[in-house]
Task: structure prediction
Amino acid sequence: MRKIFLALICALTLTVVAVPETTVAAASTNGYSRPTVLVHGYKAGSGAFDNFINETQVNGQTTFALRVIIDRGHMVVQGHMLPHMHHPLVQVVFTQNREPWNQNAIWLNRALCMLRRRYGIRSFDAITHSRGCMDLLVAYAHKQPLRLHKAVLIAGPYDGALWRDDRLGANHLNAQDVPAIKHREYRELQHLAPDFPKGVQVLNVMGNKGDRSDGVVTNVSTLSLKSALGSRFRAYKVATFHGPLAVHHALPRRNPYVWATTVHFLWPGDHGHHRLQHVAAAFNHDYILKHKYGETMKTKSKKYQDAVMHE
Result:
């Protein structure tokens, strides 16, 4: 898996956003690098990003810094944030993981305030999954203790979810990406749009397992983000993933293409050319991967999944 991940990092040559990068020095007042905050989804926890953290640490793309555990508003901070850490990761874990996104947004902003107060952090990047996407967007619309620089939003339910208020094939987007049926999430994002600060660069990630959904969120729901908040974004891209690891919970947990695309979007050009030596070996060897529901598949690493980037 590690060789495959390295190969994917090297193989991703797409320029996701054609805008200049701000310097790391601007991320804080006292030498701390801009952190990337990880926010899990509904009924989830630290496991949503454990594999991503492990792989990117081993391969030198990131450094795990802090785990912020929030239990009914009480915050416990584990780990150490040090000056000049290379792409420090801050994992936010809600022990009460079934709370409404408005409540999570309040708690998330408290964690961001802590980063500003303790470390002089001024800006942050974010990687979120599922309901965590709503937590982040609502939090940033309500309050901005830190400036959100880039956000990778994975499988966000911006206009409903299949297990709650949506059905396959029931909704569609018009030419402006406005959904025909506007569920509660979409209406709230529309309401918050005037207060959402301009300037965020967004990568909107979704899975299509063959029925235009990832099994939990339809592609229509995820793509509705553009019409709800897109006018506030500095840059906006969509990454669509297909195949057995395109299901909702596998996207952040076990999909190396999602990890590689995330790294490339957040830190373009940050990968050593020496890693190109791994490409041929990784893309020419068979390997075993397990389907979400236990089915074992043997396939070529280059063929088992198709990653498409588009506007």
The first helix runs from residue 2 to 11. The chain has a mean pLDDT of 82.
